[in-house]
Amino acid sequence: SIIGYTVFDQKAGSIGIVEEIIEYPGHNVLKVVNGKKEILIPVHEDIILEIDDPKKQIVIDAPKGLLDLY
């Protein structure tokens, strides 16, 4: 499970911690929490670049504007 992993964006740096994996028809979404902010990151091969289990880190390349929504 990747619950508790820290999520890093290639450009923005640390985004927050994975709190939950939300299952939607067709795709899943990571619910990432940073303080009181919740960020939803689609689980997609174009976005998730690396999952580092020993470091408990996920590296993403967020689409332009995604993080600006939060």
Task: Explain how this protein is built.
The protein is mostly beta strands. 0% of the residues lie in helices and 56% in strands. The chain is built from no helices and 6 strands. It has strands spanning 6-9, 13-24, 27-34, 37-42, 48-52, 57-60. A 6-stranded mixed sheet has the order 4-3-2-1-6-5, with no helix packed on it. It starts with 5 loop residues before the first strand and ends in a 10-residue tail after the last strand. The model has no long low-confidence stretch (mean pLDDT 94).
What would the keywords be for this entry?
single chain, 70 residues, mainly beta, six-stranded mixed β-sheet, globular
Helix content: under 10%
Number of strands: 6
Quaternary state of the chains? single chain
Radius of gyration: 11 Å
Strand % is over 45%
SSE series: EEEEEE
- Low-pLDDT parts are none
What's the average pLDDT? 94
Shape: globular
The biggest sheet amounts to: 6 strands, mixed
At a glance:
The chain is mainly beta and 70 residues long. It is 0% helix and 56% strand.
